[in-house]
Amino acid sequence: MSKTATFERGIHPKYHKELAAGKSVTQAHLPQRIVVPLSQHIGAPAKPEVNIGDEVKRGQVIGTTTGFVSSPVHSSISGKVTAISDFPTSVGRMVQSIVIESDGKDESVSFKEHPEYMNLSADEIKAMIKDAGIVGMGGAAFPTNVKLSPPKEKTIDTVIINGAECEPYLTADHRLMVEHPREVVEGLKIIMKSLGVKEGHIGIEENKPDAIEAMKSAVSGEPDIKIWSLEIKYPQGAEKMLIKAIKGREVPSKGLPMDVGVVVQNVGTALAVYEAVRFGKPLIERVVTVTGNGIKEPKNMMVRIGTLMSDVIEQCGGLVDGAVKVISGGPMMGFAQWTLDVPVVKGTSGILVLAEDEYVSSDQYSACIRCGSCIDVCPMGLNPSILSIYSEKGFYEDAKANNLFDCFECGSCAYVCPAKRPMVQFIRLAKSQVKP
Amino acid sequence: MTTEAKAHELIVSVSPHVRGQETVARIMWTVNLSLLPAFIMSLYYFGPLAAFVTGLCILSAVLAEHIYQTSLKKKSTIGDGSAFLTGFLLGLNLPPSVPFYIPIIGSVIAIVITKLLFGGLGYNVFNPALIGRAFLLISFPKLMTVWSEPTAQFIAMDAKTTATPLGILKEEGLSKLIEIFGDKTDLYMSLLMGNRAGSLGETSVIALLIGAALLLYRGYITWHIPFSFVATVGVMAWAFGGQGGLFTGDPLIHLLSGGLILGAFFMATDYVTCPSIRKGQIIFGIGCGAITMMIRLKGGFPEGVMFAILLMNCFAPLIDRGVKSKKFGAVKEQKK
């Protein structure tokens, strides 16, 4: 039996999932050129392992780790390295990247398969996950092997796979669960094995009944794994909210899921883990939802890491005339792009193009009228109104005293604000001005 | 259009990139709309005077805001409906027979002194309409306490004057009040429908509740303030309002008369001047109710809603400071 679970407060934005939810994942064209940033993850950037002029193959390591919290990067095509330099990325920063021109052959290095993967030891699994360059694919891009190696004093008893996909428009995880449910479950089992955990959960928002159905039949022989249908509410897929909904545990302020014995992994990450451990395949491609009313043909596409957004958009028929905003990720927490010549990276869950009618200007805002809407919706139980006022007036320390750093910038407050105040912008400003 | 050409026109801003439909103007105009039933009943009972007084209040409030802002070369904000609302509420809080300068003075005080000089909508400490009314009551005590008898005739320009139910209750007692209205049921019915002397928009409880239902339905107000306010008044009226000792009072009379319903649903709930946190709003409502009843039962005025809300307005920021909503993850943190 599945249960409908959720957290307190939150918002109900328009989901617009219908644009892409029914579209099966299609393979994107082999890109002519890829730009692979050496830092696509949280932690130390990788360092180049190749030189300009080198020939590389698909799956070959081109950047190696430089610390414990770091992740290697691989080439997603075969071809020649033509540049190693700083390039713009989808989060707005310039990052050292490796540019590879395709030779059109798409030759692969050979991957080491493990048909008996459930017999591997935890350390072997973690090493493979690390070598495959797997990071959290929900957007945060935290190196997965680090998440699977908690300090000894933290006892992990639960793994949760995050299939909530609460960001409006995005359908990448939805399609993965519908099309590859068994692989996701195997990925979860591998993750559980690596942590020595007996209890697994998969949480999915109720607006994906086909995904819930598919996942349920995929776990029919797995008594330790439960499928949860979650209330359709944003930000249901935020780690802390998901853990609260499924386990009823509250991650302490400034704490991590491991503080309450839980590890959360995204659906896409689970699939990548399975492919890495079973087939030895590194993370060189991912599902990207290309959607929004500003795109001609919304699609879910399997895209090679490093493919430029402009290339992906062309394959979806290009932008419509009224397209005004291109976002990497979802509309609530994604990043607006100033150029389309940025690569798809491991954390790119979607490319969302908003048309004029979907776009809301935030240039014009007025004083807070203290309606309290933001307080009613803040999933962290904060007072966003007072945080925004303190930040606006430059009282950053006061903002900090009002739990500024508990905010994870989900944007619910800005969504409901009738005065159209740029709440997240104010909060980020304050965060940049004081030490946590 | 090619992607290269298009990229130069992309808009870049901080997330979230989608917003809800609610705007300040939409909220304010809806509140104005919700006051229409009460306004229509005031026309029915007090005739064209009601339209004259209320209209003049609205006109002066909107003009005051517009002139103030344009003369200071600021953007005029009359479109957001809040000046209109202040005028509307002030009008509904005035006796029917006030001379023309009363609405004008009241509106200017409400808009310019109470709101704009404090920084405009969002920064005012006190409910503008109530400060306007308090100013008028203190400055023109005679004019502000002349109550016309409801006539239910559109032609009556010079109606007879009488006392409000709360005035009669205070001066002559409950039995006299019942005697005037016939019997107890007649009294309750008259109070419910609004067929009694009082401020223009406060008399018809039923019309006010229809408007309040719209606001509750739309989520623009929540039960916290009105319910705690009204319940406190009811309990205190029952406990302390009777002649024969404790718990002999008639709560219904206090609930249905005076400006309680107008105040509790439309004025105490003013976002800017009430606490923002729901738990704090309950404290605020209880405070409003308690002060109202203290004034009604022990004070010099027969009615206390206005002063009660204004006094509690002072405490709203303090309440917001003291009452925090439950922070996620706070319980575990304390255990450490």
Strand order of the largest sheet of chain B: 1-2
- The tally of beta strands of chain A, per DSSP, is 18
Number of helices of chain B: 17
Percent helix of chain A = 25-40%
Q: Give the overall pLDDT of chain A as a whole number.
A: 92
What are the defining features of this structure?
A: 436 residues; five-stranded parallel β-sheet; globular; B: mainly alpha; 2 domains; two-stranded antiparallel sheet; 17 helices
Structure description:
The complex is a heterodimer of chains A (436) and B (336). Chain A is an alpha/beta fold. Helices cover 26% and strands 21% of the residues of chain A. In chain A, helix 3 (172-179) runs parallel beside helix 5 (209-218), helix 4 crosses helix 7 and helix 10 (384-393) crosses helix 13. The relative contact order of chain A is 0.16. Chain B has helices at 3-7, 24-34, 36-46, 48-71, 82-92, 101-115, 128-139, 165-172, 174-181, 184-193, 205-218, 224-240, 251-256, 260-267, 278-298, 305-322, 330-335, and strands spanning 147-148, 161-162. Chain B has 2 domains: 24-144, no CATH class; 168-319, no CATH class. Chain B has 17 helices and 2 strands. Chain B has 336 residues and is mostly helical. Helix content of chain B is 61%, strand content 1%.
